[in-house]
């Protein structure tokens, strides 16, 4: 599937950027691809989709429950606006920074609220803030605990705030670990 993705997204000329539809289609296909380990589910997936067809990064993180030692693994797929795809892997032995990055994610408080506070009559609610840095983050946590300890999954998309700050910081902390 990865070879199909590369062939489908590689432009004819290295000087010709992909159009936005090609970039979006490639991130969707790549986001759905399984992680390398057989029968392994992704515990955390972060998608950083850069605006203006600037490409994307997908980081899949999973725990090796069937192996000894039980390590955290991560795979990063990066595609630039010209369709060049790079795939890199790491584990917590080669990059101990992955554990503090995941621990920091546990510190984020996320409230699920369907009913928003009412606005005062005659006061128009503020418009949504503009995209601050040009990157839309989508965080998918497939194994999350509910208050009754039932398993659940949650997907959140943001462009600023606590999750975006965690993503920016985490990407910087892991930057030296990604080796081709």
Describe this structure in words.
By secondary structure, the chain is an alpha+beta fold. The protein is built from four helices and six strands, in the order H-H-E-E-E-E-H-E-E-H. The chain has a six-stranded antiparallel β-sheet, sandwiched between helices.
Describe the structure using short key phrases.
180 residues, alpha+beta, 6-stranded antiparallel β-sheet, 4 helices, 6 strands, 27% strand, globular, disordered N terminus
Short description:
By secondary structure, the chain is α+β, with helices and mostly antiparallel strands. 24% of the residues lie in helices and 27% in strands.
The biggest sheet amounts to: 6 strands, antiparallel
- Measured between the Cα atoms of the first and last residue, the distance is 19 Å
Order of helices and strands: HHEEEEHEEH
Beta-strand percent range = 25-35%
Taken from the alpha-carbon principal axes, the silhouette is globular
Helix percent band: 10-25%
Write the layout of secondary structure elements.
Elements lengths: L1 H8 L10 H13 L11 E7 L5 E8 L8 E8 L5 E7 L6 H9 L28 E11 L5 E8 L3 H13 L6
Antiparallel strand pairs: 1-2, 1-5, 2-3, 3-4, 5-6
């Amino acid at each position: 599937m990865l070879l199909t993705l590369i062939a489908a997204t590689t432009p004819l000329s290295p000087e010709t950027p992909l159009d936005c539809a090609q970039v979006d289609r490639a991130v969707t296909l790549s986001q759905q691809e399984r992680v390398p380990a057989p029968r392994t589910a992704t515990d955390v997936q972060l998608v950083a989709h850069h605006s203006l067809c600037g490409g994307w990064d997908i980081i899949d993180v999973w725990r090796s429950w069937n192996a000894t030692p039980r390590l955290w693994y991560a795979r990063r797929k990066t595609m630039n606006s010209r369709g060049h795809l790079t795939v890199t892997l790491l584990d917590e032995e080669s990059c101990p920074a992955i554990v503090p990055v995941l621990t920091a994610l546990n510190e984020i408080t996320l409230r699920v609220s369907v009913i928003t506070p009412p606005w005062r009559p005659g006061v128009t609610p503020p418009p949504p803030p503009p995209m601050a840095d040009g990157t839309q983050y989508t965080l998918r946590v497939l194994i999350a605990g509910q208050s009754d300890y039932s398993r659940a999954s949650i997907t959140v998309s943001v462009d600023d705030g606590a999750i975006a700050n965690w993503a920016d910081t985490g990407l910087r902390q892991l930057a030296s670990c990604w080796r081709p």
